[in-house]
Design a protein that fits this description.
- The complex is a heterodimer of chains A (255) and B (247).
- Chain A contains five helices and 19 strands.
- Chain A has 255 residues and is mainly beta.
- Chain A folds into two domains: 39 residues, Roll (SH3 type barrels), CATH 2.30.30; 213 residues, Fumarylacetoacetate hydrolase, domain 2 (Alpha-Beta Complex), CATH 3.90.850.10.
- In chain A, the strands form three sheets. In chain A, strands 1, 2, 3, 4, 5, 6, 7, 8, 11, 12, 14 and 17 form a twelve-stranded mixed beta sheet that branches. A five-stranded mixed beta sheet of chain A has the order 9-19-18-15-16. Chain A has a two-stranded antiparallel sheet with strand order 10-13.
- Chain A starts with a strand and ends with a helix.
- The model of chain A has no long low-confidence stretch (mean pLDDT 96).
- Chain B has five helices and 17 strands.
- In chain B, the strands form three sheets. In chain B, strands 1, 2, 3, 4, 5, 8, 9, 11 and 14 form a nine-stranded mixed beta sheet that branches. A five-stranded mixed beta sheet of chain B has the order 6-17-16-12-13, with no helix packed on it. Chain B has a three-stranded antiparallel beta sheet with strand order 10-7-15.
- Chain B starts with a strand and ends with a strand.
- Classes of the chains: A mainly beta (255), B mainly beta (247).
- Chains A and B meet through strand 7 of A and strand 4 of B.
Chain lengths: 255, 247
C-alpha cells in the first residue's frame, strides 16, 4: 500500500496512491499525479545521516565515521512532491542528495538490532539539499546549510515496509533535466537501517512518523534555477522538485 | 498574563493562569509550556565563548563562527514543570542548562532585527539539559536529545509583561541550594538578533521556542538521580524538575 497526504480545498487529506501514482481519496475520487498538491507524507522527528556511504565519504575527503553521524532538521524544511525549492542568491554550490528514508511505524526505545526492522513502518524518498557555501565547523552540518525553508523535498508517498522486499538492495538515482547524475545502492550503507534504529532508540524514544534519512552515495552536482531534479529510489518512489531563484521564491511568498 | 498547558481529558489544553492560582500550579505536573519546534543556541554565553575562543582558529573549527550556532531539541526531550528528567542508568553525569526561552507569537519569515520583537509572544524558562559538552564540532544529538532533556515552563509570560528582558537574573538551585547564577545580559546575541537570524532562512511558527543560550556546564550544574533542580528567572517564573535514573 502507498499512502500520501495532499491538500484538498486547503485541507491536509490522507490518500492512497494507485499504480499510476495518482492520489485516491477515501471516496474513490482519483486526482491525477500532476494535479495533486502533494505534501510531506508524515510528521515527526527528522534525522539525517551524514557520510553514510563509503564512496560519498571519499568524495568529501572524509573517512567513514566509526559511529553514525546524525544531524537533525526542523519541519519548516520539508516540502512535498512536485514543488519548487529555491537556490539562495550569490551562492556557489548547492547540491541534491538522494536518500532512502525509513519511517518509524511504532514507538521504539532501546530496540535491539535483531528486532529493529519491526519498528520501520514504511519507506519514502528524500532529497536532502545542501548549500555548501554556508558550511561552518560548528554542529556541522549546520542548520543554515541543511534546514532552510523548502530545502528537503520528501515523498511523494510512503510505501509500506512489507512491500519493500530488501531495503538494503535498492538503487538510488538522481537526474537533472533528465540526465543521470547520481547512482548508488543502499547495499553500500555504512550503517544499515537496523543499526540506525537501534542506535537512535538507545538515545531516545522514536515515535511513528519519525524519519531517518539514511544518507547519500557519491555523485553530487550543482543545481541551478530552472532545473528539474528527480530523486528516485527503486521500488520506493520518484520525487520531483523544481529549482527556482531566491528572487522568484520571495515573489512567491507575496502570493 | 501567564499561559500554561495542561492535560484535560487527555488533550493538551492551554490555560491562562490567574495570579491567585500560581502557587497551586507550581506543585502540579504540567505539559511543556510550548508545543512547537525548539531551537537551541550554542556558544551564546559571553564567558563560555571567551573561554573557548582561543581554540576556534584550530582544527576542527579553523575559524570562529560567523553566525549563531544552532541545534534542535527534539519533541521527546520536552517535558513540563514537575516532570522527571531521566538520567542515564549507567550514571553518566548530566548538566542543567539554565536559559530564558523566547516564544514565537506569530509566523515569522525573514523579519528584520528592528521588527523582530513584534514576533515574540512571550518568554519562558528552559532547562536545556545535556551530557557534558565535549565538542561543538558535530551535532550533539547524543548529548542533548535524550528523553526529558528539555524541561520548558511552568508557563509562558506575555512579552508585554516582561520589562528589561536583556537583564534578568537566572538562578539555578539543586535540592534547594543555590548553585549557579547568571543573567540574560550574558547573552552574546540578544532576542531580536536571534529571531531575525533564525527567520532569515527558517519560517518560525507561533509556539516555536528559541533557547537563547546556556552557560558553561561546570560541576556546579551537574545533576544526579535523586536531585531536584530549579531554575528561577526574574519576572518569568521558576521551573522545577526531579532527576531520576532512566529505567
Amino acid at each position: 500500500m502507498k499512502r500520501a497526504r495532499i491538500l484538498v480545498n486547503g485541507e491536509l487529506t490522507d490518500v492512497t496512491v494507485n499504480d499510476n501514482n495518482d492520489a485516491v481519496l477515501a471516496d474513490g475520487t482519483v486526482i491525477a499525479e500532476a494535479d495533486a498538491d502533494w505534501q510531506p507524507p508524515c510528521d515527526g522527528k527528522i534525522f539525517v545521516l551524514a557520510i553514510n556511504y563509503a564512496d560519498h565519504a571519499a568524495e568529501l575527503s572524509f573517512k567513514a565515521p566509526e559511529e553514525p553521524l546524525v544531524f537533525l532538521k526542523a519541519p519548516n524544511t520539508l516540502l512535498g512532491h512536485n514543488k519548487n525549492t529555491y537556490r539562495p542568491d550569490n551562492t556557489d554550490y548547492m547540491h541534491y542528495e538522494c536518500e532512502l528514508v525509513a519511517v518509524i511505524g511504532k514507538t521504539a526505545k532501546n530496540v535491539s538490532r535483531a528486532d529493529a526492522m519491526d519498528y520501520v513502518g514504511s519507506y519514502t524518498v528524500g532529497n536532502d539539499y545542501a548549500i555548501r557555501d554556508y558550511l561552518e565547523n560548528y554542529y556541522r552540518p549546520n542548520l543554515r546549510v541543511k534546514s532552510r525553508d523548502t530545502c528537503t523535498p520528501v515523498g511523494p508517498y510512503l510505501v509500506d515496509a512489507a512491500d519493500v522486499k530488501d531495503p538494503h538492495n535498492l538503487t538510488l538515482r538522481t537526474y537533472i533535466n533528465g540526465e543521470l547524475k547520481q547512482e548508488g545502492s543502499t547495499r553500500d550503507l555504512v550503517f544499515n537501517i537496523a543499526y540506525l534504529v537501534e542506535y537512535l532508540s538507545n538515545i531516545m524514544t522514536l515515535e511513528p512518523g519519525d524519519m531517518i534519512f539514511t544518507g547519500t552515495p557519491e555523485g553530487l552536482a550543482d543545481v541551478k534555477p530552472g532545473d528539474e531534479i528527480v530523486t528516485e529510489v527503486e521500488g520506493v518512489g520518484r520525487l520531483v522538485n523544481h529549482m527556482i531563484s531566491e528572487s522568484e521564491y520571495l515573489e512567491s511568498l507575496k502570493g | 498574563m501567564k499561559h500554561c498547558r495542561i492535560l484535560k481529558d487527555g488533550v493538551a489544553t492551554e490555560v491562562s493562569v490567574a495570579a491567585n492560582s500560581v502557587s497551586e500550579l507550581e506543585t502540579t505536573t504540567l505539559m511543556p509550556a510550548t508545543s512547537g519546534t525548539v531551537f537551541g543556541i550554542a556558544l551564546n554565553d559571553k564567558s563560555l565563548y571567551a573561554k573557548l575562543e582561543p581554540s576556534f582558529n584550530d582544527k576542527p573549527h579553523v575559524s570562529p563562527p560567523t553566525r549563531p550556532v544552532l541545534h534542535i531539541k527534539t519533541a521527546n526531550t520536552h517535558i513540563g514543570n514537575g516532570a522527571a528528567i531521566p538520567a542515564p542508568a549507567d550514571g553518566t553525569t548530566i548538566y542543567a542548562g539554565p536559559s530564558i526561552g523566547i516564544v514565537i507569537g506569530k509566523q515569522a519569515t525573514r523579519v528584520s532585527e528592528a521588527e523582530a520583537l513584534e514576533f515574540v509572544g512571550g518568554y519562558t524558562v528552559v532547562n536545556e539539559v545535556s551530557l557534558a559538552e565535549v565538542s561543538f564540532y558535530r551535532p550533539a544529538v547524543k548529548a542533548k536529545c535524550r528523553d526529558g532533556f528539555c524541561p520548558i515552563g511552568p508557563w509562558v509570560v506575555d512579552a508585554a509583561d516582561v520589562a528589561n528582558v536583556e537583564s534578568l537574573s537566572i538562578v539555578t538551585s539543586v535540592n534547594g541550594e543555590k548553585v549557579h547564577a547568571t543573567n540574560t545580559d550574558q547573552l552574546r546575541a540578544g532576542v531580536a538578533e536571534l529571531v531575525s537570524y533564525l527567520s532569515s532562512f527558517m519560517t518560525l511558527e507561533a509556539g516555536d521556542l528559541i533557547i537563547a543560550g546556556t552557560p558553561e556546564r561546570t560541576e556546579a550544574l551537574a545533576l544526579k538521580a535523586g536531585d531536584t533542580v530549579s531554575i528561577d528567572i526574574e519576572s518569568i517564573g521558576a521551573l522545577s524538575n526531579s532527576v531520576v535514573s532512566e529505567a
